[in-house]
Write a structure and sequence with these properties.
single chain, about 280 residues, mainly alpha, Cytochrome Bc1 Complex, Chain D, domain 2, two-stranded antiparallel ribbon, about 50% helix, extended
Length: about 280
């Protein structure tokens, strides 16, 4: 009897759930929710490709060095690279002496402890050090950036939906708000309109506000689009520095699996040939 009552109760709640779902679906179809301004004015990332794209992709070392220059001269004042060490720069074409010079002359010194007093201090960076954070903590970072904490850029191209094209689009997407943008979505004090950002307004001012903010030694024209593309390529590398090795390993694995498949098939034909012949004789 108890089991029967339990089955009835279960059927009642299951039926009620189905009825509620059907009523909700009917209401949604007949009266769909109004499109929000964030959805109406938001734009998908621009269509852009990089040399590292695809299974045969490789990094352009010269572009990576240009991107590092943009990071160093434009981005490093606010954004950290906590997962990257100075010595990793050798992977993008800098030699040992250049890496030592870059680390020693970095604008922000590495935090350390004075061995004599035990108090916190700082020192010039070494190649083995990670890139030092521009702010001591999140409170200091927020206080210097309109109450917004600049994200670490080490994995930014993998952490954001849209990946590298999103980062490029965000850097080149600052513009004046459209005339038909609702008042509630107009950028407030200290905010900047960018249709590639999720809620259209962000606290970060245009980092690449004008061309020629950096001077490339290879003669490349430092337009806003070029600087954005170069620093995005550099951030693709910081997020996946072993990308080229992974691609090479992948092709080697595919070749191995292909050869192994052929050998397995030939072995199958050889091993079972006699068995099939014996079966035919018996038949």
């Amino acid at each position: 009897m108890v089991r029967f009552i339990g089955i009835l109760v279960g059927l009642f709640f299951s039926g009620w759930l189905l009825v509620s779902f059907a009523m909700g679906a009917k209401e949604y179809i007949s009266n769909p929710p109004a499109e929000t301004a964030e959805h109406a004015f938001h734009q998908e990332p621009k269509d852009i490709s990089f040399t590292s794209d695809g299974p045969l992709g490789k990094f352009d070392r010269q572009q990576l060095q240009r991107g590092f220059q943009v990071y160093k001269e434009v981005c490093a004042a606010c954004h950290s690279l906590r997962l990257v060490a100075f010595r990793n720069l050798e992977e993008i074409g800098y030699n040992e002496d250049e890496v030592k010079a870059i680390a020693a002359n970095w604008a922000i010194q590495t935090p350390d402890v004075d061995p004599d007093t035990g108090e916190m201090s700082s020192r010039p960076s070494l190649p083995a050090d990670k890139f030092p954070k521009p702010f001591a903590n999140n409170v200091a970072a927020a206080a210097a950036n309109n109450n917004a904490i600049p994200p670490d850029l080490s994995l930014i191209t993998k952490a954001r939906e849209g990946g590298a094209p999103y980062v490029y689009s965000l850097l080149t997407g600052y513009q004046n708000p459209p005339a038909n943008l609702p008042e509630a979505n107009q950028p407030g004090p200290g905010l900047h309109y960018n249709p590639y950002f999720a809620n259209l307004n962000l606290a970060m001012a245009p980092p690449l506000a004008a061309a020629d903010m950096v001077s490339y030694s290879d003669g490349t024209n430092p337009s806003i689009e070029q600087m954005a593309e170069d620093v995005t390529a550099f951030l693709i590398w910081t997020a996946e520095p072993k990308l080229e090795e992974r691609h090479q390993t992948g092709w080697a694995v595919i070749a191995f699996l292909l050869i192994a498949t052929i050998l397995a098939y030939l072995s199958y034909r050889t091993i079972w040939a006699d068995v099939k012949a014996e079966k035919k004789k018996k038949v």
